[in-house]
Amino acid sequence: MLRPLHLFYCASLLGLTTISGLLLLLYHCAPVLYYLCTGILLGSVGYCVVLYLAPKSRVSGNGKAVFITGCDSGFGFLLAKRLDSLGFTVFAGCLLADSGGEGSKTLRAECSTRLSTVQIDVTDDGQVQAAEQQVKDRLPTGSKGLYALVNNAGFTHKGEIEWVSIAAYRRVMEVNTFGAVRVTKAFLPLIRRAKGRVVNTSSGSGLHAHPACSSYCITKAALESFSDALRHEMHKWGVKVVLVEPCAFSTCTDIVKAETYNRLIQVCRLHHEEAVKEDYGMEYVDFKLGKIRAAHFAPFQAKDAKTVIDAMADAVTLSTPSHRYLIGGSFEDYVNNAWLGYFPSRWTDATERNEKEDDPKPAMLQKTIFT
Predict the structure, then answer these.
(1) CATH number for the domain that contains residue 168
(2) Is 159 left (phi over 0), alpha (psi -120 to 50) or beta?
(3) 87 lies in which domain range?
(4) Residue 350 phi/psi, 5° resolution?
């Protein structure tokens, strides 16, 4: 079975062959059309190259305020430091700002006096409203409102669908989707007044669902739709909405800490329904949990978040940012996420499932095999 990267190479080769064949046919049959089409093709390629290489117009951070959620660690922590270095007034929203979190302490110690930490749990209406009021009261002098909001706070819970409780689904949705919606609605009046922008941290998992990751994938897919709708609605106000979609950067964040997996293993062992325990068997559960953990700490996971932070900084600072920034941990990872939806699922399902013949099977299937 071909992988998406191989399909990408095949499709590219087929496209180049087709274009070359058509141009050769025009050269012999209609020279005038050949020169016209060649000129258009070369001009289009040249225009794209110039557009890509041309210096991008950026806004100055002086007098502009940015509020970022999820700054205790990971992308939010690094982005807060980057934007502070660019002269922005940064409000770093931290879950543990008022309880001595190491992330908030480090930000206050290492960044300029323009940066301040703000206590916020994005699932708590009261804390969100208090954070909005704190930001409103401390905007830079002369500022019309909030220049940018970055919804970055995230949470995940792994496991096959039958293993994950409804409470766990609700928790992930509350943080990743409703948290972003809640914070956005609270801060939109300030953003509209400044004709600012909203930057939402989504994921490649919001574009394509992966096995044993449904609770996270559905939240990011919902965030994608929310962001698209918001972009259409905010256009009349001059507000920009940008999605940043990192892929394979798990080791750069604390969203998949080792202790998270240890807790997940305990939950899977103790809280399954009896039918699930009996049909799957703990041998299979342990094997799958081990594969999930190995995937998030595998060599293909990016070790450096710089490309993600660059994209997030572009989303905040470029005068005309892109609507989406898809960032792969590697070229293959980028191609997989960019092209997976364009190929028939009959071809791509095997890539997602990635099961081997000799892998342990659920207990019920083992009984079926041997009876």
Answers:
(1) 3.40.50.720
(2) left
(3) 65-329
(4) -65, -35
Residue 2 clears pLDDT 60, i.e. is over it: no
Give per-residue pLDDT as tens, 165-180.
Answer: 899 899 999 999 999 9
Whether 71 is catalytic is no
Both tokens of residue 213?
Answer: 């990751």
Tell me, yes or no, whether 353 lies in a domain: no
Helix ranges (DSSP H) in the chain? 4-29, 31-53, 74-85, 102-110, 125-137, 166-173, 179-194, 214-234, 258-270, 274-280, 282-296, 306-317, 331-339, 345-353, 363-370
The bridge status of strand 116-119 relative to strand 148-151 is unpaired
Looking at residue 253, the DSSP 8-state letter turns out to be: S
Nearest C-alpha neighbor of 203 from the set 69, 327, 354? 327
Pairwise CA distance, residues 138 & 133, whole Å: 9
First to last CA, the chain: 31
Q: Which residue has the tokens 């992966």?
A: 210
Residue 96 pLDDT > 80: yes
Q: What are phi and psi of 241, to 5 degrees?
A: -125, 125
- Compute CA 245 distance to the chain's CA centroid, rounded to the nearest angstrom: 3
CA distances 249 to 45, 64, 84, 343, Å, are 32, 29, 23, 24
Strands across the sheet containing 324-328: 116-119, 89-94, 65-68, 148-151, 197-201, 240-247, 324-328
State how beta strands 65-68 and 197-201 pair.
Answer: unpaired
Both 236 and 266 in one domain: the answer is yes
Which one is catalytic: 94, 111, 217, 252?
217
- How is 71-114 classified by DSSP, letter by letter? TTSHHHHHHHHHHHHTT-EEEEEETTGGGT-HHHHHHHHHS-TT
Q: Does one domain contain both 157 and 232?
A: yes
Residue with tokens 């960019």: 338
